[in-house]
Amino acid sequence: MILDEPTNFLDLLGVVWLENYLKQMRNTSRTTMVLVSHDRDFVNAVCEEIAILRDQKLSYFKGNLSAYEKDLEEQKLYLGRMKEAQERQKAHMEATIRETMKVGKKTNDDNKLRMAKSRQKRIEDRTGLQVSANGGRFKLSRDRGGWHSSARAEIEVPTDEKGVLIVLPDATELRFPGPLISLEGIVFRYKQNDAPVLNGIDLVMHMGDRVGIMGLNGCGKSTLVRLLTGNMLSSKGKISNHSRLKLGYYAQHSVEDLQNEGQADQNLTALSLMLKEVEGKLNEGEIRGLLASLGLQGKVVSDVPIFRLSGGQLVRLSLAKIIWNSPHLLVLDEITTHLDFHTVTSLASALSTFNGAILLISHDRFLVRSVIEGKRDEEHILGDEFEGADGEEKEIQNRRRTVYVLKSGKLHEQQEGVEQFEQSLVKRVRKMMPTLG
Question: CA-based, 20 to 30 A from 306: which of 10, 203, 388, 405?
């Protein structure tokens, strides 16, 4: 069974059901599964081995994604120390050889010259890995068979497998305080006599707030976002904005909209699109700088038509469209759909440092935990640039961090965050799960 991004359009109930179904299949059948996914929690729960495609080569690891990342960090530390120690030893031996050669030539001492050549040969023979692949002592005849340019393999310290580096601009100064946006008693019906999709929604957001909204497909999350961003009108209630509010909205179908725009005008590039978007408020150099801060640069920006860009590149272009004017509030509706998990990690770190407010709608448990709850998961490695709830700055520590579930038209605060919602779904899934034969 081959599954390529099976969780992309599932809500969390669907993800948890599929997760448990595949785990049950893994444990009770002989079916082999190959899974491609950017969902860290999903991969960790289902997979027992990881295949890593890197530098056009496949390597394999026995264990899940978290175990692989932990092992990679340990290998970096171990091999890094080995390489540093060996380089110090090599530098000392080379200095001794140079001095011996100098004395030998000056005194015409053949013994010293032979000694220097012998030591040089010893450096060449002993430079490289000191252990075998199994962790035992290196043995040339066993561990380095065939023709090679050196007796031992070079010590290669693993490098970080990072996605595209993402840097977000700080929000524009607000000048005077107050809520960025306020929703009071919001009710929404598609038709006058229909049951309300939203019924009594109250939500206030200030600078620095982190609010996550989760829920099942069709519960009204995107409808709420369209109301909040002014793209729809409520049936009842009041929505108020700060008079200086700049809002950046990443819609759920942003990538598809760009693809359609690119197909309509096949000469349209990221650069030409942004030049139209900013209407002269940024020059070409500033736009290139903005796109480069999102990992889009060089010919990709100016020569490659939008319709040829990958899904991940289109996500980053969509981000450029909403952050170029340094908004106070970012509203992000399912932004991870087309991103690989390294870039999701990079995005989480970038959002963690944003000084404005964030409203995040997502089924991605890792993203909600890291960006909204500010948690640095033990199972998922985040870089030093990540600013979580445990940060040193009081401004970050004191941020309002709230996860809601939208259900039956109302927002329900999850005191325990994502985990509370997930556990409620696990109970439902256990009741509906089939038993595999």
Answer: 10
Starting at the edge strand found earlier in the chain, the sheet holding 210-214 runs 247-250, 329-333, 357-361, 210-214, 401-407, 410-413
DSSP annotation string for 51-94? EEEETTEEEEEES-HHHHHHHHHHHHHHHHHHHHHHHHHHHHHH
Domain assignment of residue 369, yes or no: yes
Distance CA 175, CA 290 (A): 24
**Residue positions counted in the chain:** 437
Residue 162: which residues within 8 A CB-CB, separation 6 or more? 342, 345, 346, 383
Rounded-to-5 percentages of helix, strand, coil across the chain: 40, 15, 40
Let me know if residue 236 belongs to a domain. yes
pLDDT tens across 104-126, in order? 888 888 887 888 788 777 766 66
What domain count does the chain have?
A: 1
* Residue 164 located in a structural domain: no
CATH of residue 414: 3.40.50.300
Averaged pLDDT, 19-36: 90
Pairwise CA distance, residues 73 & 68, whole Å? 9
What domain range is 410 assigned to?
Answer: 179-246+326-432
Predicted TM-score (pTM) of the model is 0.79
Q: How far apart are CA 218 and CA 199, in angstroms?
A: 15
